[in-house]
């Protein structure tokens, strides 16, 4: 059907731009000599994960066990779960996932010695191997064991259990992804992980404990990985992009033009109370505001703000022609991940033609 025939609000992926983003990130990863392991929390759709793998990705990342279950069911066979788990329910779910999909390779991130023993007991009883990657503190002050003796001891503890395998180190500095200015962002990203790579060379390598995999970086910081010791990139937002990423700049200037904004929300004007104010049918339940307001595509004379759960308010600049009731506009989300999680379906569009759609199978799977 034509785009104009699609009911609103609707989540849109511009397929031409999305395919350019797929190729561009794989090209950058290849040029850096690193594997690309895209973070699929950005899209939560197995079909898009397969597209990333077909373009050359080595595997995928997910944030939660629930997402891993969705991706395994969708045929994805190399999955890194990047958030630590705790508690018997989660440990048993991980073991069951490994048993249910023996053809898949799952890696679970941990950061605490207390996670090792229960996983070892369950893995031994189930006669499966659990691959564990250790997250290290990389400046975000979130999860992660400190670089030093605690890291070394955790590696030794994992290696001592036949049912467990030390699968590497995760060093992700999520707080640095949106630093404005390429040079400043790159410097901060390299400084955040410099102690880790120094410790690997100085302490772990002589003991035979050096990781074969160091995973990290993201859409904003992948270029900082050059020559550091990373083996793979966890970028996710590059596939869709959003207005907040466009504002951080790249090596060419103040706008991040390395990737294109392929994710959009199609909206309809449902009210025109005054000549300089219009209301669209996409509020905070469609366009997330955690990274700021969305932006009307190609309309610098309009500004958007949330008007509540179901309403978005457009303010028209002086001299702007009034919007008509029923007029349709495209909005660029400020944060692709949280906007996507508001919808059940993603529509693929080429020009003004809707050519395909995907159910967002991992929507809401924060379990």
The first-to-last residue Cα distance is 36 Å
Mean pLDDT: 97
How many domain modules? 2
Helical content band = 25-40%
Question: What does the secondary structure layout of this molecule look like, with pairings?
Answer:
Layout: E1 10-14, H1 15-32, E2 35-36, H2 46-54, E3 60-62, H3 65-73, E4 78-81, H4 88-100, E5 105-110, H5 116-126, E6 130-135, H6 149-159, E7 164-171, H7 182-204, E8 214-216, E9 232-233, H8 243-246, E10 263-274, E11 277-280, E12 295-296, E13 302-306, E14 312-316, E15 328-332, H9 336-340, E16 345-350, E17 353-359
Parallel strand pairs: 1-16, 2-9, 3-4, 4-5, 5-6, 6-7, 7-8, 8-9
Antiparallel strand pairs: 1-10, 10-11, 10-15, 11-14, 12-15, 13-14, 16-17
Helix pairs in contact: 3-4, 4-5
Walk me through the structure:
With 367 residues, this protein is an alpha/beta fold. The protein has two domains: 3-8 and 260-359, Lyase, Ornithine Decarboxylase, Chain A, domain 1 (Beta Barrel); 15-246, TIM Barrel, CATH 3.20.20. The chain has helices at residues 15-32, 46-54, 65-73, 88-100, 116-126, 149-159, 182-204, 243-246, 336-340; strands spanning 10-14, 35-36, 60-62, 78-81, 105-110, 130-135, 164-171, 214-216, 232-233, 263-274, 277-280, 295-296, 302-306, 312-316, 328-332, 345-350, 353-359. Strands 1, 10, 11, 12, 13, 14, 15, 16 and 17 form a nine-stranded mixed beta sheet that branches. Strands 2-9-8-7-6-5-4-3 form an eight-stranded parallel beta sheet. Strand 16 (345-350) and strand 17 (353-359) form a beta hairpin. Helix 4 packs parallel to helix 5. The longest helix is centred in the middle third of the chain and has 23 residues, at 182-204. It is globular, with a radius of gyration of 22 Å. The mean pLDDT is 97.
